[in-house]
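Hello again, I could really use a second opinion on something today. For a while now I've been wondering how a particular protein folds. Please have a think about how the structure follows from the sequence. Here's the protein in full, and shout if anything looks odd to you:

***
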Amino acid sequence: MNLSIQRANVDFDWGMHHLRAFAIVCILIEHLWMHIGLFRQAQAFFIGSTFYFLFISGYLCQYLAFRRSIAPKTYYRKKWTNVICPYLAWSVFTLAIVRIMNIRRAGVIPPEMVRWDNLPHIFLFGWAQGSYWYIPFVCVLFLVSPWLWKLKTSELVWLFVVSVSFAICYPFRPSSHFDGNPAMVFFQYAYFSWSYLLGLLYARLKPKIDPYLQSYAIPAFGFGMLLGLGLLAPEKFAIVCPSEIDPNDALRETVLSGPLARSFQKLFFIVPAVVLAIRFTGKRIAVLDWLATYSFTMYFSHLLFLSDFVRLQDWLFSLVQPNAFGKTFLQIVVTVLFVAFNLLLAMCLKKVFGRHSRFFVGS
């Protein structure tokens, strides 16, 4: 494969770095708003934000491979230290806290499930916290990434087309967890994998795509936003939680409801996100830099404290007894505090663990 055109610009990609900040904020808002009931209709904008992280992961995987010519052995070692080690550390910490303190928290494994016979499932399928399913999932993608590097661009395009076809034919996302059922595991990969492959493709074709997006930034931004927001409007695309789906009519409900719509919504939203990333490629924005730098640690920690901020909202409501506008204002305040708290916590943890932080709290 000719890599010469890909090596033209090896500067740090601030734009994609800032996009990571956008992704982690969307995920934190998604998880908090599901429990505090803020902006029910707007929640659809944030639900499924994992697609952004997968897109960024695919992009960085290909971009860094071309930039540094990383050998597969080195690549796997970095993923072990930067992804798997902190995942195991946070999982063990979560299990210990839940077991010792016998606590129940939203998105965290209940105490009765912390058993020796459950440990293989807990670590293999990310059961410790609701968001941890992503780590075993993306690790499989990391495992095959060196093979994907060797594919011709035309072959990668066809693989992306196939992955989108799977997302259309099997638009299921029955749970945030892998439950060990092979069919459900397949549905998760069918549903999410296209975004990782899209990131790989964008990294390869960046020198060709970026000039067009720069020349037609406003039409591209507007087109992506219009199509993405269009999927929020129709009633048939309303969010349907798995527990609300009739098991006897799951296919109809799933195809016409949230999962398929959210998949394509995020596909369209990636276009304006990339347009903005290109716009700020050479600029550092301090707040976004902090959020992006500590995003992985925030991802690992935020569900442990989510219930506390739900209780904070309830306490504020009982204290102030606001009207509808006041409730919305307080919920926005709680959301900002939730993001800020997790950012400060991540900063403190990185300071405590120092240069070894990537092994314990995430890099």
